[in-house]
Amino acid sequence: MPQPSTQPFCTCSIVGTGSYVPERVLTNDDLSKIVETSDEWITTRTGIKERRIAAEGENTSDMASEAARRALASAGITAADVDLIIVATVTPDMFFPSTACIVQKKLEAWNAVAFDISAACSGFLYALQTARHFINSGNRKTALIIGAEKLSSLINWTDRNTCVLFGDGAGAVVVRRMEEGDANPPGRILSAVMGCDGSLTDLLKVPGGASAMPVTPENIDQRLNTIHMEGRETFKHAVTRMCQASEQALSMAGLEAKDVNMVIPHQANLRIISAIASRLDIPEERIFVNLQKYGNTSAATIPVALDEASRSGAIKRGDNVLLVAFGGGFTWASTMLTW
Ligand SMILES: CC(C)(COP(=O)(O)OP(=O)(O)OC[C@H]1O[C@@H](n2cnc3c(N)ncnc32)[C@H](O)[C@@H]1OP(=O)(O)O)[C@@H](O)C(=O)NCCC(=O)NCCS
User: Fold this and answer.
1) CATH number listed for the domain at residues 12-177
2) Which CATH superfamily hosts domain 188-338?
3) Within the chain, which residues score under 70 in pLDDT?
C-alpha cells in the first residue's frame, strides 16, 4: 500500500469527536400523516427511515454546545484549552451574533475566537479546512469545529419533495496542532479539497427571510422562508462533484480508492452514496451510512457520522478515512485522514 503523502498539511490532527441529536424521533409513518407520502416511497428513494427534531426552545447553539462538550471530553481537554471555535451552520440561532459566539458563552471557552461559516452541507469540511490554515500558520493551536443544524426551522411541512429529507443534530471535532515528537498522531489530516459553483445557487436555497427578501406576511404565506430544491438536478451535481472531490483528495494524499478503509460521505440520499461508491469502485461495506436514523442534517452529517464511526469501531487507528460533502451553493469539499 502506498504511504500517504504528509505534505502539504502534516501538522494538524483530529484528537476528539462528539455528537448530539435531539430526543424526538419523526418516522416516515409519522410524515405520511402530514403529507401524501409513504414509508415505502421515502425508504426506496432516499434510504431515510426516521429523523430527529429539536425540542421546543432547543436551538442550534444548544445542540452544538452539547456535541462540543462530548468532543472536548473525548479529546481529554477543557474549554479553556480551545483558542478557535468555528460553527458551520445554515440555521444559526439568529442573524447575529454568530452561533459560535453563543457556543463560546455556553462552554465558557473564554480563550477562543469564534465565528460561523455558511457553506450549507459542505460547511463542516469548509470549517475544518479553515481551522487547518489557522493552525498550520501558527496562529491558533486548538480548534473546536462544529457542524450544527436545526433544519426543522426551515422546512415547509406541506412540501413532500423536501420535508421528508431533513433533520436536526450536531457533531464536533477537536483539531490540534501536533508538536515535534508527535510522530504518529491520531486523526492526521493528509489533504483537503474545496470548491463551489455560484451559478447554481437557485437549485437549492431558502429564498426569503434574509436581506434580499425580508420577512413579510405575504412571503411567509408563500413559504419563501423555507427550503426550495430542484431534487433531480441537485442529485446529479452531488454525484459528479463528490466523485471529483474524492479523487482529488486521494490524489493529493498520494493514495488510490483501493487504499481507503472507510468513506464517510455527506448523508443526503442513499442512492447518491451508492452512485459514488460505484463510480469510485469502493465496496459498500467501506462506506459509512447512518442517514436511515437522522436524514440529512446538512453541516452536521459528517461530524455526527465520524463520531459514530469512531466510537463504534467502524474506523480504527491507522485507517485511511475519506470525508466528502456536497451542498447548496453549490459547494463541495473532501478531506483525507489517517485515523
Ligand atoms: C428529492 C429526491 C429524493 C426525489 O427523488 P426522485 O427520484 O428524483 O423523485 P422526483 O423528484 O423525480 O419525483 C418523482 C415523483 O415522486 C413524487 N414525490 C416526491 N416526493 C415524494 C414523497 N415524499 N412521497 C411520495 N411521492 C413523492 C413527485 O411528486 C413525483 O411525482 P410525479 O412523477 O407524479 O410528478 C431526489 O431527487 C434527491 O434525493 N435529490 C437530491 C436531494 C438532496 O440530496 N439534497 C441535498 C443535497 S446536499
Assistant:
1) 3.40.47.10
2) Thiolase/Chalcone synthase (3.40.47.10)
3) 1-10, 180-181, 183
